[in-house]
Amino acid sequence: MSTLGHPRVHLRLTDSTNERARALALSGAPHGTLVTAAEQSEGRGRQGRRWSAPAGSSLLMSLLVRSPPALLPLIGAIAVCDIAGEQAQIKWPNDIVVPRAESLTKLAGILIEGRPQEGWAVLGIGLNVALRLEDLPAELALTAATLGASTEQIEPTLTRLLEALELRLSEPAEATLEAWRLRDALRGREISWSRAAGPPSAEHGRAEGIDGNGRLIVALADGGRLTLDAGEVHLVSR
After folding, report:
1. Structural domains counted in the chain
2. Residue 204's domain is classified under what CATH number?
3. 181 secondary structure, DSSP code
4. End-to-end distance of the chain based on CA atoms, in angstroms?
5. Is residue 2 included in any domain, yes or no?
6. 87 pLDDT exceeds 90?
7. Residue 128 near residue 141, CB atoms below 8 Å
8. Which CATH number belongs to the domain containing residue 61 in this structure?
9. Which of 58, 70, 133, 142 has the most CB atoms less than 10 A away?
10. Shared domain check, 206 and 145
């Protein structure tokens, strides 16, 4: 049994599990404190996006991690893949996706927030456990994936995820990097990204895996290489 998840706060409805977990962190809650919810009204994803899921359809959780490792974003993604099955892959840095035709559909999202200077982070995970794609707006159904389980499986899925997280948090960085690379959804594929500064401009290259710090390595058309340490990347349609 995992020691993570104690104490636990479960809410029928909340604005954001990350917000509740952040408040608990600031009040001195211990490592492993967990906030879960059946529904969020203001769930957040990366890059300021909203994370939407019908009530009771998804595992919505935020875990307080004290003294978080530098590779926590990668660790969270690997742990989700551990319980999601062989089809689950990782779109850098930590979107959990399932290939569908030439696209990647999103099974889970991860958002990490915290105060590194104070030695804590909140690991937020939204995993589509019992989501029915037909319940989503058409435009979202095209880009979403689900485990296709029943709502009764959300709690057992949480238990398995906490166990996977505890195991992965105890591993050395080399093991984390190796496990992440085995689930890499982008390696060898053409991608685009936007520069963080300057005028909007999409750049292109070929994803070549990650370096020892978890940064995305990109091969450029002119033979050069660069690394991305943040931002959003997209597959280039053929």
Report:
1. 2
2. 2.30.30.100
3. H
4. 46
5. no
6. yes
7. no
8. 3.30.930.10
9. 58
10. no
> Which has the closest alpha carbon to 63: 164, 162, 129?
162
Query: Rounded to a whole number, what is the largest CA-CA distance in the chain?
Result: 53
Query: What is the helix (H) or strand (E) element at residue 157, kind and residue range?
Result: helix 154-169
138 and 198 inside one domain:
no
Cβ distance 30 to 57 under 8 Å?
A: no
pLDDT value of residue 52: 64
Q: Is residue 3 part of a domain?
A: no
Q: How confident is the model at residue 201 (pLDDT cuts 50, 70, 90)?
A: low
Q: Which residue range is the domain that position 197 belongs to?
A: 190-235
Please tell me the pTM assigned to this model: 0.92
Q: Is the pLDDT of residue 45 over 60?
A: no
Distances in whole angstroms, Cα of residue 145 to Cα of each of 107, 140, 159, 174: 5, 10, 21, 30
**108-114 LR contacts (CB < 8 Å, sep 24+):** 108/80, 108/84, 109/45, 109/46, 109/51, 110/46, 110/73, 110/76, 110/77, 110/80, 111/18, 111/44, 111/45, 111/46, 111/51, 112/72, 112/73, 112/76, 113/18, 113/22, 114/22, 114/25, 114/65, 114/68
30 cis-preceded (ω within 30 degrees of 0): no
Give the whole-angstrom CA distance, residue 232 versus residue 193. Answer: 6
Q: Which residue has the tokens 């159904």?
A: 141
Residues 110, 194: one domain? no
